């Protein structure tokens, strides 16, 4: 992973790096690897994640086709 530092602006480069790492799932993987996970627990977790991804994809597909109402947008009550 590479981030270009422009005009010696290290803070901006750090923000860009963190955003890229977040998108790639590096932080999530680091959290998962903190403790040993039994192979059986790993299979259960991965299967549950696959089911959740499939449900989300189906929900998005139905929303695009107009068969399911889109989620209501939250109003920023600030």
From TrEMBL:
Pfam family, one: Ribosomal_S21
GO cellular component entries: ribonucleoprotein complex; ribosome
Keyword Ribonucleoprotein part of the UniProt annotation: yes
Ranges of compositional bias, category Basic and acidic residues: 31-48
Family assignment from sequence similarity: Belongs to the bacterial ribosomal protein bS21 family.
PANTHER family listed in its UniProt record: MITOCHONDRIAL 28S RIBOSOMAL PROTEIN S21 (PTHR21109), SMALL RIBOSOMAL SUBUNIT PROTEIN BS21M (PTHR21109:SF0)
NCBIfam families, alphabetized: S21p
Protein name as it appears in the record: Small ribosomal subunit protein bS21
């Amino acid at each position: 992973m590479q981030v270009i530092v422009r005009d010696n602006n290290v803070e901006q480069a750090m923000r860009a790096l963190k955003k890229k790492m977040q998108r790639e799932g590096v932080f999530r993987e680091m959290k998962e690897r903190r403790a040993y996970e039994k192979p059986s627990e790993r299979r259960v977790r991965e299967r549950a994640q696959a089911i959740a991804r499939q449900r989300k994809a189906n929900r998005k597909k139905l929303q695009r086709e107009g068969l399911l109402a889109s989620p209501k947008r939250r109003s920023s009550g600030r």
